[in-house]
Amino acid sequence: MVKSRIDAILRHLGQYGRLLMKHTLKILSAIVFVAMAVAAAEPSVKRPNVLFIAVDDLNHWVGYLGRNSQTQTPNIDRLAKRGVWFTRSYCAAPVCNPSRAALMSGLRPGTSGVYDNNNKFQPVIPEGITLTTQFRKAGYYVCGAGKIFHSSVYRPGEWDDWLKGGKHGKKAEEDDATPTGVFAGKLPITPMSCRDEEMPDYAFVDYAIAQLNKKHDKPIFVACGLTKPHLPWSVPQKYYDKFPLEAIQLPPYKEDDLDDLPPMALHMATRSGDHEAILKQGGTNTWKQAIQAYLATISFCDTMVGRLLDAYDQSPERDNTIICFWSDHGWHLGEKHHWRKFALWEEATRAPHIWVVPGLTKPDSRCDRTVDYMSIYPTLMDLCGLQKPSHVQGVSIRDLLAKPDMAWSLPAVTTYGQDNHSMRSEGWRYTRYSDGGEEFYNETDDPYEWTNLAKKGGGDLSVKMELSSQLPKENKPPAGGKQGNSEVKKAKKKLNP
């Protein structure tokens, strides 16, 4: 019946009508085919969310790394057991500003000229090239709180939302500056009588938790920058109580450790006068007080990480949320007569680094390959299906996250000041300073870097040559025309009057 009616219509339309109908049917068929192909190409899984946890001045004194047996970090250890944790992860620069500028921009210090805290990164690192901006361009809702860039610099173009002001317990943070504050030498180590809720980091974590629990119509990138254990080591007294002073142990230390250092390295170790001031104040007892304060502040930080993990577990998007955990650099506590960062040794350059990637990483996976933080930007882009911008200098470590024991030959590179670089492979560290001074350590036999083989002409010279050949070639003048490392400049004047 239907066929006879169609035939009647076609006879009525005549030859041109029949041709028109045939072409129409072909066009409709093509449209249906294209629609089906597009539907088949649509991803079955939406893009993952990101929880980006940045910590300030946390060195490798975390439980799972085993560098210091006194530390108490059950929550950071709990995070490590969920994914891949690196035993050899290194900052791009052992100073807050250049470390964060490099990680967030994808540009090494020698490329941007941001070497020190006195180099403003904003004029040389446009908003348009940074990590968070790339996620915004890709349709993510990008939000954050705390310290991500140095001094918690906030540029509106890089964020959809940013926590400003609020109840941060500012008074609790300022109390250490009072005349009655407690100091170890020059280091403020005042225990506080306040509650956790009065500390700035508590508010930053509150903000991140709220974002994780919100219903979003876009994938989200949530950045939470924890300020502790940065100085002042002012946290509630209960964290100090976890580490009785009489039980505190000094780190491994050699009195003659500076004897084989080149002049630039020697200056870096002693310039602040912290170690001399601590020993003059109260000898090893004051040294132990400083270590107690640092351990207490790490414990506070760990508690904040625990709050984030608990919220992550309860969040509706847990199974589609990546965790990237990092600290901007390490910290010395008297090793090599040195305190703080501002140096190119293991203590100042090594820091915790953990990834949890649903569907990719396996629980409690140890990776012994060397990586530096220039890998974070490209890895996040890779994991989220975004194209890496051409300016980004690091490489993705996605393959290492999937297979932590795979072959990997790239060394980690850390820069401090113009043309001062340290190259770290799995077994060796080679450092060359701008004045030609060198350090070379066998990290397997000498993990505290007590014997500078470059001074003796020892070690595996083929390894030294290989690492030397990979030193960064680009060493731009410091941003803003200032010496990227003011202390290096002073050292050069002192050594070459």
Computed Rg: 27 Å
CATH architecture descriptor text:
3-Layer(aba) Sandwich
The quaternary organization reads as single chain
Largest sheet: 8 strands, mixed
The dominant shape is globular
Count of helical regions: 16
Distance between the termini: 107 Å
Rounded mean pLDDT is 89
Spatial order of the strands forming the largest sheet: 4-3-7-1-8-11-2-12
CATH class: Alpha Beta
CATH homologous superfamily name?
Answer: Alkaline Phosphatase, subunit A
The helix fraction, in percent, is 25-40%
The count of strands amounts to 16
CATH fold descriptor = Alkaline Phosphatase, subunit A
- Our estimate of the beta-strand percent is 5-15%
The domain tally reads 1
Uncertain residue ranges: 27-44, 166-178, 484-488, 491-497
Class from helix and strand fractions: alpha/beta
Topology (elements, then pairings):
Blueprint: H1 2-41, E1 49-55, H2 74-80, E2 84-90, H3 96-105, H4 109-112, H5 131-137, E3 141-146, E4 161-162, H6 170-174, E5 183-184, E6 187-188, H7 200-213, E7 220-226, H8 237-241, H9 263-270, H10 274-314, E8 321-327, E9 332-333, E10 339-340, H11 346-349, E11 353-356, E12 365-372, H12 376-383, H13 398-402, E13 412-415, E14 421-424, E15 428-432, E16 438-442, H14 453-456, H15 461-469, H16 486-495
Parallel strand pairs: 1-7, 1-8, 2-12, 3-4, 3-7
Antiparallel strand pairs: 2-11, 5-6, 8-11, 9-10, 13-14, 14-15, 15-16
Helix pairs in contact: 2-10, 7-10, 9-16
